[in-house]
Structure formats: C-alpha cells, structure tokens
Amino acid sequence: MLQERPAPHRSMNAPASADNNSRVLSIGLPTGSLHEATLALFAKAGYQISGSSRSYKPSIDDPELRVRLLRAQEISRYVEHGFLDCGLTGRDWIAENGSQVEVLCDLPFSKVSAAPTRWVLVVPNDSPIRTVADLAGKRIATEAVGLTRRFLEKENVRAEVEFSWGATEVKVPDLVDAIVDITETGSSLRANNLRIVATLLESYPQLIANRTAFTDPWKKDKLDRLQILLQGALAARDKVGLKMNLPEKELQKLIATLPSLREPTVSPLAHSGWVAVETIIDEKVVRELIPTLKRLGAEGIIEYPLNKVVY
What angle do CA 170, 172, 174 make, to 5 degrees? Predict the structure, then answer.
C-alpha cells in the first residue's frame, strides 16, 4: 500500500506568507534538469544568481528577492502552504500535487527546447497493449501517481499504479506492464525500445504565487515586474535586432520583398534620400537576409543580440 506524501505542515501561529519582511519576496526555483536553463532565463531577465552548486540558498543581485533551490516536485506545495511567496515549477507538478496556487503565466522553456514536456503512457514495442483500455488489471509504474490515477479514472480503467523512484523506463516489461514517464524529445524512449500509447499531459514551467502573498500590494507589484522581465527574456529567445542605412527609394521594395520587415522602425537621415531602418527578426533568417539587403543598397548593417522583447 502506497503512503501519501505529506504536505508541508504550518503552525497555527505561523504567518500566511513565507517571509515576515513585506519588502522581500521569497521564490523557489527548481534544481535538476531545469536548473541551468532557469538560471540562464533569470540572467537574460537581468537577475544574476550565484552560489555553490550544492547551495540551496544562492545569492541574487536583488535585495528584494530571496531564492531557495528545491526539487520541482515540491515547489508548488511550499508555495501553496506559504513557506514561499512564489515559485517556478512545472504545470505537471502543480497538477500532481493538487496545489491551490495563483498561476501567473506559462514560461515555455526547458532543458533542451521551447517545446512542452509530455507525460506519456508507455509500453515496450512488442507489448500486446495497444490502447488505454488494454491496461485493465495491469501494473503501471510512475513518479506521477496522482496524474496517472486521475487519467485512468477518467478513462474508466482500473489498474494498479505504483510509485517509481527513478529509472522508470527500465522497469518494463520485467517489473511492470507499462510506465507513465516524462519525455521532451522521445530519444530516451526510443533508446529503450518503448512505444507511446497515450499522452496524459503537456507541461510548461509556470510562475506561481501563494494566494495570500498575491493579495499583498507590494508583493503583487514585485511579481508583476518579475513576470514582465521573464516573459520579455523568453520573447527575445532566438531573435536578433537588425539595423541599417538604406536608400529611401528602396524602402518599399524591401518591405514588399521581406515579410519579416513589414513593420520596421524607419527614421530619416541627415543625408537626403537615405533612411535608417531597424527591426527584430528570427536569428535563423539573418544569413539569407543580409546578402539581399546588400543588393538593395543597404549600408552599415548591424546585427545585435537581444536580452528582452516586451510587447
């Protein structure tokens, strides 16, 4: 019989928010596979987080923020119960824990790409199991026990679901009939000769807040500012700025020929007949674009990286 993992316990006299100091916002960030990508995102947003790789209390160059590094699986529970004001964790773990938190926004990034991670029901390639209904009476191993049980209940399928402490993909078919595991690219599943039967959930990291902390005007304002900067950093991903000087007579030809430049910023130059053009485009098209710009007579073409794009 599996025992339920207890939720964090808060004393009756403890404050509803994680930090008694109303001018400090405590935030939980994930360790594990999302750790480096999260630090890079915060750096692009303007926050430098530093400390030993083994430290769970790193420093940050904003005295109004206090960072705690925790497993993504735990963050939503600590936010819900007020030990943290806010946190960044996956939609999947919020659902798994059934956490009652304020979801501020999706942050579509991951260790490998901008694609969402997926919780998938998986069997060996040669398994006779073809549909979810075929799992009736079977054994399934997963770290996401709650998600899996709710999915099976929705599908009206009764199966035994057991908690897996890791290396879940190696447990089929010798120990269990199927697994529910997380995948981003599917490469690990293919390497282990596994086949997807169904997708339970797609998940992005989400910025979440404790509902009591979110009613505090200062903390809500701080969260709004943090959200703007993080979303701006993600919007700038894979994009660059491009500016140049162009003969004014070629401007309409440029706009008509290059859809990505339909709404550039155009400014007149002191030299009659020339304009300055500036725009934001996908980085991957620059190598094709610059030679075209040269043929149109563009000069002083500058490509520059972007940290944030705020719409």
Answer: 100
Cα(298)–Cα(8) distance, integer angstroms: 62
What is the pLDDT of the chain when averaged over all its residues? 89
Residue 204: how many CA atoms within 13 Å on its side-chain side? Answer: 15
Q: Is 24 helix (H, G, I), strand (E, B) or coil?
A: coil
Residue type at 146 in one-letter notation? G
Look up the pTM and report it: 0.84
- How many angstroms separate the Cα of 154 from the Cα of each of 97, 150, 293? 18, 6, 56
Whether residue 194 is predicted with pLDDT greater than 70 in this model: the reply is: yes
Judged against a pLDDT cut of 90, whether residue 150 lies above it is answered with: yes
Query: What is the C-alpha R_g of the chain?
Result: 25
3-class secondary structure, 151: helix
Instruction: Give all domains of the chain, ordered by start, each with its CATH number.
Output: 25-112+205-235 (3.40.190.10), 117-202 (3.40.190.10), 239-305 (3.30.70.120)
CA angle centred on 267, ends 266 and 271, rounded to 5°? 130
Q: Which residues make beta-bridge pairs with 30?
A: 70
